[in-house]
Amino acid sequence: MIYILGIESSCDDTAAAVCGNTKILANIIANQEVHRHYGGVVPEWASRAHQQHIIPVVETALQTANIKKEQLHAIAFTRGPGLLGSLLVGTSFAKGMAMGLGIPLIATDHLQSHILAHFIQDSENEKAVPAFPFICLTVSGGHTQIVLVKDYFSTEILGQTIDDAAGEAFDKAAKIMGMPYPGGPLIDKAAREGNPHAFSFREAKIPGLDYSFSGLKTSFLYFVRDQLKKDTGFIGKHTADLCASIQHAIVSTLMKKLLEAARVTGIRDVAISGGVSANSALQKAVKEAGEKEGWNVFIPPLAFTTDNAAMVAVSGYFRYLQREFAPLDIIPYSRQ
Questions:
Q1: CATH number at residue 85
Q2: Which of 58, 143, 189, 274 could form a Cys-Cys staple with 16, CB 3.0–4.6 A?
């Protein structure tokens, strides 16, 4: 059994996990509630909070897994992309711990780790995993990509957003309606009571498999602004319909390009990953498309959709098997 400690600190969640091969033995996350008051993540505060949380989070992960640090074979950490200050905390801690224990250091890519979350085994019964090659729609607050996954670490970006990410569009729409951060889950919940066709918003027409969400955000902003001029209580009276309509527009945009990518490549194993993969409307749309198109659909468990260290640990496990170790002078990167 290979034991890997994974550390994730790319944004505002401090997380640590322990895996034994691909089975997760512990997955601990410390959230930073302070950002809710400001409608988004404040980078300086995020990095300071990581410094406070990382030791207890790692200690709790080891205790939960019932593993002593001396039993670890390697330490994996998120090198990037993400907030540089936050990444530096995780990187520095991982370096120090690996050096102290005399074990290898493994650098992982945040987006690749989201994809590899599909290979996590978190129960006694082994679950089905995608077969290579497969297509993965990786969609979160900071990233939106359609990726052709040829092997664990061999990928090709077929399309990506040219401006804003889908998750950011959710959060900005929620902020416009006066909802707290993060707004994506709140929109998802409210949308269940609304009519997705109550209002329409402009969807960008981008060639190829790329995405754009900046125009959609602007369309939503101007629509709500104009309605508020007529009726100051418009948002309160139509919250469910507004949420359902903007969610429909975002999911529709995502699905059009995903369908096109599957048809162009002829690949039938289709997965989604990242924080927005937890959205119920997106999951429903992918499942319906799968039934119609004959796809094998893969959706990660809720615990492995948002930023977590389980995906880092498993990514580290596969790199360990290939002996892909990082030097101690390695530095993080904020962008790919």
A1: 3.30.420.40
A2: 58
